[in-house]
Amino acid sequence: MALVKRSLALHGHRTSLALEPQFWAVIDAVADERGLSLAALIADIDDKRDPDDALSSSVRVFALDHVLGRSDDAPAITDPA
Question: How far is CA 47 from the centre of its chain?
Answer without folding.
Answer: 11
